[in-house]
Every structure is written in C-alpha cells, then in structure tokens.
Design goal:
- By secondary structure, this protein is α+β, with helices and mostly antiparallel strands.
- It contains five helices and four strands.
- It folds into two domains: 33 residues; 103 residues, no CATH class.
- The two termini are 40 Å apart.
Length: 190
C-alpha cells in the first residue's frame, strides 16, 4: 500500500477518534447537567412548554422578529470577529457543581487571533446573591505557540496567575495584529 494513502487514512482515523471523544464529552456534559434538575423543576419546565404551545403564556415575539434579531446578532458577531481578529473554533462547558446560589462550570475555548492559535481552559464560579450575579475565573490555563517570543510566554504566565481573561483577549488582539504586520513585512523582504 502506498505510504501517502496509509498516512491519509491514519489522519482520518485520528480525526474521527477525536470527534468521537468530543461528542462523548458533550453527551456526558448534557447528561450530567440534566441530573442537576429536580423532578419539580422538570415538571415546571414541561408545564411551561405545554402552556406555550397552547397559548396560555404571555405573547412572544413573532417568528419574523426573532429572525431579524438573530440576523442582527450575527452581524454584530461578524463585526466583532472582524474588528478584533478573534475567531472561536470551539467551545465546551461542563457543569462541575450546582447549588441554588452557586454554579461552577469548566470552560474550554479554542480559536485563532489573526494567525495565532490559542486555547483557554478555566473554571467559572457564578454566585447569585439577591438579584445580583457575580462571576470569578479560576484555574486559568492558556496554551499558545510562543516559541518565537519569550515575552508572550511571560505575558501568558502573568495572565494565568491573575485569571484576567479580558486583558488576555485585548492584548492578544493587539499583539496578533502586529505579529501579522511583521510577518508580512519579513515575507516582503525575502
């Protein structure tokens, strides 16, 4: 058998195994989240859905209004991705702990900012007190290819210690944009 065909099959098998692993994780997450709801909450949700189908609940926006709102949100998202250069390729979340006042979820984000790939893993602790909800990021882990610049690895380390995701994305956007400019400039001179 040709070595190239064998390698292509091997890559396809690995891709399928990864897809199976991700789908299994998603299934487990959904199954785990569904076990956090009590029988009373499930019955309440079912009654609410039945009421909506029978027209017993308050009026909802028409389908065309919802479509227009969705299109507006998609335009806004497209604008933000174009403006920042950040494109998310995957996101997964898993509920670790859920109580009436506190929810802990583990998030995994992957994407690209211009040409730089990144991956973040963190836990988000959401606490509700009265009407206010506060969120705290912990256990932040950032993976980036920073072989080219030691300052990037230092920045990533500081960000992981602080757990400041907003600063990370702002700085990543600026750095990646200038990284692209430098790369194009050096290609021009080669």
């Amino acid at each position: 058998m040709d070595e190239g065909i064998f390698q292509a099959y091997e890559k396809e098998i690995q891709a399928l195994e990864e897809e199976i692993r991700l789908l299994t994780e998603q299934y487990e997450d959904m199954r785990q989240e569904s076990t956090f709801f009590s029988d009373e909450e499930i019955l309440k949700a079912m009654k609410s859905l039945q009421g909506e189908t029978e027209g017993e609940t308050k009026e909802h926006e028409s389908l065309s209004d919802l479509k227009a709102q969705l299109e507006s949100l998609e335009r806004d998202l497209s604008f933000l991705m174009e403006f920042t250069g950040i494109h998310f390729t995957s996101h997964s979340k898993k509920t670790v702990e859920k109580t009436p006042n506190k929810t802990v979820r583990k998030h995994r984000l992957a994407g690209r900012c211009h040409s730089l790939p990144f991956q973040l893993e963190f836990q988000l602790l959401e606490m509700q007190k009265d009407e206010k909800v506060s969120a705290v990021v912990s256990d932040l882990s950032i993976t980036m290819d920073s072989r080219e610049d030691s300052n990037v690895s230092k920045f990533v380390s500081r960000t992981e210690e602080c757990g400041d995701t907003i600063t990370f994305f702002r700085s990543l956007s600026t750095y990646a944009e200038w990284h692209e400019h430098r790369r194009h400039t050096f290609l021009h001179f080669k």
